[in-house]
Every structure is written in structure tokens, then in C-alpha cells.
Amino acid sequence: MTAGTAQKISNAILSCAAGFASFLFSLTALLYLTEFDQKIVAALAAGVFCLLISYVAAERPNSESARALAALSDRLLAVEDGDLVSPAPPAVKRNMPKLAAAVDSLFAEVRASIENAHALGMYDPVTSLPNRLHFRSEADKLISEAVDTVQSAMLFVDLDRFKMVNDSLGHARGDQLLIMVANRLRVVVNAEFAGTAGTRPLLARLAGDEFTIFFPQIDSVRDVERVARRIVLAISEPFELSSHSVDIGASIGVAISPDHGTSIEALMRAADIAMYRAKSVGGGQHCLFDAELASEHQDKIDTEKALTEAVQRDEFVLVFQPQMSLVTGEVAGAEALLRWNHPRDGLRLPATFIPVAERTGLIADIGEWVVDEVAATLGGWHRDGFDGRLAFNISPRQVERPDFFARLRQSFADSGVPLSLIELEFTESAAMEVSPAVLDEIAALRADGVRIAIDDFGTGYSNLARLRSMPLDRVKLDPSLIAEIESSEKARVIVQAVIQLIKGVGCEVVAEAVETVAQADILRAMGCDTVQGYVFAHPMFEHEFVEWTGQARDKDAKSVA
Ligand code: C2E
Ligand code: MG
Ligand code: MG
Predict the structure, then answer these.
(1) Ligand 1 contacts CB of residue 396 (under 6 A)
(2) Ligand 1 in contact with 373 (CB < 6 A)?
(3) Distance 455 CA to ligand 3 centre (A)
(4) From ligand 2's centre to the CA of 239, what distance in Å?
(5) Burial per residue of 82-120, b for 16 or more beta-carbon CB atoms within 10 angstroms, e otherwise
(6) 288 and 430 share a domain?
(7) Which partner for 319 in 51, 369, 525, 539 could form a disulfide, CB atoms 3.0-4.6 Å apart?
(8) Is there a cis peptide before residue 258, judged by omega within 30 degrees of 0?
(9) Which helix (H) or strand (E) holds 323?
(10) What is the CATH number of the domain that holds 387?
(11) pTM for this entry
(12) Could you tell me if residue 218 is inside a domain?
């Protein structure tokens, strides 16, 4: 064997050793190092190690460089103990100065990258406040260090109407506004902290327009409520945003430790629930978490869980409420209304579960069940020779399903029910929001005989142009419009004007929740076509409804005779 061949073989062996060592190093790093950045460093170190051995293989080391190599290897292994700071060992600097400089600059770069990654991962780039992760870990530390007797407070701040600003003025202005909000929050929190000896409060941006503040030590709940009120006041002042004056507000939820939870997670949940309450009662205020909110929240979670199984368990049932014509005095049709036969609570009204179903999206499955059930019921009535028209409610989430209209048509075709026997009710806000494509589908259904109604008219924001252009047959007045027509002249003026408006666009008027004969008489005089309400009948189960309409028809027949 020549000397050249021997050198090639030994170089090959050294390269293999380098590869194998690098493999072992990376494997150890992946298996044993927990932090992501430790893994990056270990992988880099493995690379350096590999380079180093290849370098030494190429240079044919003498014993001095072998010592330098051993020193460098020790230095690299020190990374495992977190040493990213020590310079290359002196032996390396002496024998392999270029390599020493390369190793030092590599470590410097790694340190800079890690610091950068931490900064990016821990702070919100828009407001420079700590982000959710950072907040969580800092607050966790503070609460775990807190003495048992100390009370702490968590504030959840959610902006009111921020989305409107973002949508109308654009995201860049939205970001500007968030920076201004963060600054106002800083001012309130700093003013609160100044002069106290305790630990500094933590202020963070969680996401979107949500901020949070954790006070590790408070003197009293009253003090925290005072801070919450100051924040509400600070955010309610108009913001000057490139020549626009912008009005927003803040809804704040407050939770206190240990009463409402002893972990940051529990406190954040409680403060979030309280914030939702503050928002649901109009926003621009704070709400303190309490036992009632906790039990309401638990109910919501229980309802959500039970609702997911209710369709499969066949727990829903429809009830029917007649609609009477004020012109002919006859039954003009009926509305199908949903009831939930809850295994524990008995018959539950829609108000106790429809909002949860809407929020979770379960309403789409429930709505499909309603469509099929209305089709089956009408199919039965049609075969028995009773051709009453049935209205039913459609949730906006249902029409978002791309196959909604095709399924609906199929369902009624399968039950042999002419489309002229059904009426779809959309709430006013849903009707105003539907897309042009959905409007086309609604128009096509109407062309095939389906009646289209707007429900609860007078509660939402109505676009009068949409009212004119929408394919529409009937408009149902919201009960709040009817409630005072007997006692209030103003209420009568409003209802009369609304009836004229609806008739002006060529639609029929239906009044809902009519409870007295006097209300029905006033509505008839005002030109209302149809009424639905307890004055005539409550919603009934199917067999009761069929019996009731039979009696009503007999009565009509007798009165005609
Ligand atoms: P809605 O569609 O406006 O239904 C009319 C509501 O007024 C019904 O309440 C009915 O029982 C009630 N009502 C009728 N007459 C009177 C009266 O004289 N006085 C009073 N105070 N109330 C009266 P219900 O059945 O509790 O339904 C409430 C709401 O739940 C419905 O309002 C509708 O928005 C929703 N809903 C009901 N069934 C369904 C459904 O199948 N799908 C969807 N998406 N929503 C439904
Ligand atoms: Mg309705
Ligand atoms: Mg209604």
C-alpha cells in the first residue's frame, strides 16, 4: 500500500467518523434536549464538529493539533450545558486561528439569532407589548411565587367596535389604533403602579383587539374595579387617527384570585366570561366574575355538549302556531317552531339553546332536521287533504352550506309537497346580510312558489334598498313593536308608519305575539293582514294543531251557514 492510499483510507475513516459523530450528536440533541433553541444549537454544533473533523482529516494532524481538537470538542460539548458564550479554547486559537475565529463568529451568530427569535416570539410586533405566550409564562411565575394570603386580579379588555374601524379605515389604521390603545393602557397601569411597593403589573396583547392585565398583588377588589373604570374612561375618549376622530369602547372582565381561580388559566377563563357579560349588556363597562356567571357558563357548556347529540338521539320536536287572517278571519297558515325534549330538563324553548347552536354552528344540522321534519309533516297533511301553508325559520348559518337549497328542494320533492305550501322566515339581520348568490337562490325558490318572509322586523338595521330589491312576500313585525300599541300613541304612530312602508314595497304584514283582542282590532284598523299570537292560539303539538284547525274550520263553516 502506498503512502497516498493509506492517507486516503485514513481520511475516509475520519470522514465516516465525522458523519457518524454528527449523527449521534443530532440524535442526542433531538432526544434529550427539550427546548427548541437548544436543538438548533446542537444541530449547528454537530455541523461544526463534522467540519472540524473533516478539516483535521485534510490537514493530517500532528499531536499539537490533536490536543487542540480535543479542547475544541470539549468546548462544543459544553453547548449541552447551555454554554454559548465561552470563546474557542486557546490551543485552537494558537494552532488553528482561522478555525477558532470561525467557531467564535458562529457562536455569536447563533446567540444573536436566538435572541432575535425570542424577541419575535415573546412580543407583539404591533404594540411591542408581551404576547400571549410571554404573558402566560410570566403570569404563571408570578402567581406561583405569590403568598397564599395575597389577592391578585386578572383583567380582560376587549375593544368595542374595533372591527368596524378595521373594516372601514383599513388594517394599517387599525394597527395604529391598537398602538394608541396600548399606550393609554400603559399610562393607566403605570399610574396605578406608581407609588406602590408591590410587583409591577403585567400588561399584554393577547390577540386582535384583546388585551389583558395581571395585577399580582391587590389591596382590595374595589381598587381593581376603580382601575377597570379608569380604563373604560381612557378608551372611551376619541382617538385621532390621521384626521379621523374614532370612537371605540372597552368591555372588561375582572377575575380575582383566589376567589375565582388560583391558576392563570382559571383566572383568564373567568375574566373572559365576565368580559362577555360586559359586552352583552352593551359594552363600555366592566363586569366582575361571580357565582351566577360561573353557573350560566357551566349551563352553556352542558347545553353545547348535549346539543351535539340531540339530533342523533331524536330529541327535537316541532310545535305549530296558527296564523289568522284579519281579512277573512280564517286560519291562514301556521309557523313551525322548534322544541328540545331535553332528557333531564323536559321541553326546552329555543331561547335556551338556539343561541348556543348558532354560536357553535350546530344550528346547521338542527336546521336540516327542521327542513326534513316540516317536509314529512306537510307530506302527511297533504295526503290527508289538508293543505295549510307552513312557515319555518331559517338560520343564516344554514344558508352558508353550499348544498342547502338543493337539499331543501329534494326534501320537499321526496315528501311530495308542492313548494307553494312552504314559507321561509329569515330574521331581518340575516336578510340584510345574505350574499347576492344566496339572494338568487331565494329568488329561484320564490319563482317556484315558495313564500319568503322577513322575521322580527324592526329589531335590526334595515337597508331599505334591500327591502325593495329582496324577493319578498311578507314581513313579520317584531313583538316589541306590538307590545305597547294599546297604551302608547307613539307606538301606534310607529306601527302605522311601518305597516305603510311594508305595504308600500308590496308585501303582506304579519303581526306576531298579539296577545289581546284590542291589539288585533287596532292592527286590523291599521291594515295589518295576518296575526299570530296567544290571543288565538299558543304553539301546539301536531295532533293538537290538527284538532284545533279542524274545529276552527268547523266554526268557520257554521258561521258561514
Ligand atoms: P320567531 O320565529 O319570531 O317565533 C315567534 C315566537 O313568538 C315563538 O317563540 C312563539 O312561541 C312566540 N309567541 C307567539 N305568540 C306569542 C304571544 O302572543 N306572546 C308572546 N310573548 N310570544 C308569542 P319560540 O317558539 O320560543 O321561538 C323563539 C324564537 O326561536 C323564534 O322566534 C325563532 O327566532 C327561533 N326559532 C324557533 N324555531 C326555530 C327553528 O326551527 N329554527 C331556527 N333557526 N330558529 C327557530
Ligand atoms: Mg319566525
Ligand atoms: Mg318573529
Answers:
(1) no
(2) no
(3) 5
(4) 41
(5) eeeeeebbebbbebbeebbebbeebbeebeeebeeeeee
(6) no
(7) 539
(8) yes
(9) strand 316-325
(10) 3.20.20.450
(11) 0.69
(12) yes
Helix (H, G, I), strand (E, B) or coil at 541: coil
Domain end residue (candidates: 292, 322, 356): 292
394 CA closest ligand 1 atom index? 44
Q: Establish if 306 belongs to a structural domain.
A: no
Both 20 and 141 in one domain: the answer is: no
Has residue 173 been placed in a domain?
yes
Ligand 1 site-directed mutation target among 337, 352, 457, most atoms within 8 Å of CB: 337
**How far is ligand 1, taken at its centre, from the CA of residue 337, in Å?**
6
Burial class (CB in 10 A: 0-12, 13-18, 19+), 437: exposed
Rounded to whole angstroms, how far apart are CA atoms 185 and 183?
Answer: 5
For ligand 1, say whether the CB of 158 is within 6 Å of any of its atoms: no
Number of neighbouring beta carbons within 10 Å of residue 2: 7
Residue 515 DSSP class:
-
- Give CA–CA dist 233/151, Å, rounded: 25
Helix boundaries (H) for 205-290: 221-236, 264-280
Question: Which amino acid, 385?
Answer: G
Count of beta carbons in the 10 Å neighbourhood of residue 508: 19
Q: Please indicate, yes or no, whether residues 263 and 165 belong to a single structural domain of this protein.
A: yes
- Whether residue 11 is found in the same domain as residue 136: no
Q: Which three cell numbers stand for residue 451?
A: 313564500
- Protein residue with its CA nearest to atom 21 in ligand 1: 513
pLDDT in tens, the chain (561 residues): 444 444 444 554 445 454 444 544 444 444 444 344 445 555 555 555 555 555 555 555 567 888 888 888 888 888 766 788 889 999 999 988 999 999 889 888 888 877 776 677 899 989 999 999 999 999 999 998 887 778 999 999 999 999 999 888 899 999 999 999 999 999 999 988 776 667 889 999 999 999 999 999 999 999 999 999 999 999 999 999 888 899 999 999 999 999 999 999 999 999 999 999 999 999 999 999 999 999 999 988 999 999 999 988 999 999 999 999 999 999 999 999 999 999 999 999 999 999 999 989 999 999 999 999 999 999 999 888 888 899 999 999 899 899 999 999 999 999 999 999 999 999 888 888 888 999 999 999 999 999 999 999 987 777 777 778 889 999 999 999 999 999 999 999 999 999 999 999 999 999 999 999 999 999 999 999 999 999 999 999 999 999 998 877 666 655 544
Name the percent of the chain in helix, strand, coil, to the closest 5: 60, 20, 25
The DSSP letter of residue 487 is: T
